[in-house]
Amino acid sequence: MSTARPGAVGPGRDTVRRALLVTGLATLLGVLIAVLPGHRGWFDVGVYHGAVGHWARGGDLYAWVTGNGYGFTYPPFAAVSMLPMAALAWYPTIVAHLVLTAAATVFLLVLLVDPLARAAGWSRWYAFALAALLLAGLNPVRDTISFGQVNLLLVALVYLDLWLLEHGKRAAGIGIGLAAAIKLTPAIFIGYLLVTRRWRAAATATGTSVAATAFAAVVAPGASRTFFTEALWDTERIGKLAYVSNQSLLGLVARLDRDHPDRRLWLALVAVTLAVWVVRSRRAVGAGNERAGFALTGITACLVSPITWVHHLVWLAPALVVAAASTLPWPPADRAARRRLRAGLAGYVVLSSGLVWVFANDPGTVAGFVGGNSYVFVSVGLLAFLPLGRSPDIVEQLGRKPCPDHRSRDRMIPVRQ
C-alpha cells in the first residue's frame, strides 16, 4: 500500500524538474552571453602569447607591446610558466587556456560547494550545476574567460592551500607561494598566514615564492632585472587609474579627481581596510572558519591593490559562497539569516549586472559615481559584514574542528573518531 501523500512529487519528477531548471538557466545564460556586448576577444591571452613568443625568439619580454600599447606586466616567473605558449599557434593557445581555466573552476566548485551540498542534503549534480551557472553569471568571471586571464588559475592555486590547511597537510603554503611568484597580488595571503599565526605555512609560502623568483632570475636574468628595476614601477604599463574598470580603492579615489588623485586619502582608506581585515581574519580563524578568512583576504587584495580590473574580482566569488553558507538551511528560518540572504543576493546581482559599465561615460554625477564604483562598494560591504560563524553541519562534513591552541601551526586538526 502506498504511503505517498496526495500531490507529493516523487524523486523521479523532482529530478526532471531540477534538470529542466538547470537546462533553462544554462540556455538563458548562454543567450545573454552571446547577445549582450562584452566579449573581450581573448585580449590578455593574446598579450601573453605575443610577449612570450617574442621573448622565446630572443626579444625583450617587457619591450613587446600590442598595437594599442599594452605589454606583459607579470613577473618573469609567470613568463617562464607560460613558455609552452611559444610552441602553440593562436587557436590552440585559446583552447589550452580554456581547458586550464575549466579545470581550475571544477576544483574550486568541488572545494567550496561540496561541503554545503552534503550539509544541506542536496543532490551533488544539482548543487554543482547551479553553482557553475551562478559562477558563470558573474561579470568578473565572464571577463576573465573572455579576456583569457589567469585569475581563476591563481584563485585555484591559493585555495589549494585552503584544502591543505583544512586537512592539516605540512605542504600548506606552496600554492600561495607559486601564485605570488606568478602575480604579486596573491602575496597578501602570506600576510594572512602571518596574522593568523600559521608560521610553518607562511614560511613555506615565502620560501616557495622566493625559490620560484630566483629560478626565473637564473633562467631569465635580463627579464628579471628589467621587471624589478623598471617595469614593476611603471604604472602606465597597466592602465589608467580612473578608468571605470579599476574597481579598487585607488580607482574610486582617482575618479573623485582624475587629474590629481589624493594619494593621502587612498593610503588612509588602505590603512583602515587592512586593519579591518586583520581583525576580522583573526576572528574568522579563531571561530574555525578558515574559508571566511581566505575570502576576506581575497576581498582585501582587490580593495588595496592600486589596479583591480573588473576581471580581478573573481576573488569575491568565494565570499559569496561563505555568505550563502551562513544562511543555511534554506529557506532560512530566522530574520537575521533572511537579511543576510537578501544582502548576498543583492551583491551577486550587482556583480553580475555589469552595472559599472553603464556609468562608464557618466562620471560627473552622483549616480555616475555610485554606479561607476558599485563593485568597490560591494567589496567594502563583504569585507565589513561577511559572516564569520561556521555552520556545525559544514564542520562535520569537512571532518574537522577548530584547534583550541591558536598558536599552533594550523588552526584545523582532524576530528578523532
UniProtKB/TrEMBL annotation:
The chain crosses the membrane at residues 20-39, 89-113, 125-141, 147-165, 172-195, 264-280, 292-309, 315-331, 343-360, 366-388. The keyword Oxidoreductase does not apply. Coiled coil: none annotated. It comes from the Bacteria. Keywords: Cell membrane, Glycosyltransferase, Membrane, Transferase, Transmembrane, Transmembrane helix. InterPro entries: GT87. One of its GO terms (cellular component) is plasma membrane. Belongs to the glycosyltransferase 87 family. This is Alpha-1,2-mannosyltransferase. It comes from Micromonospora krabiensis.
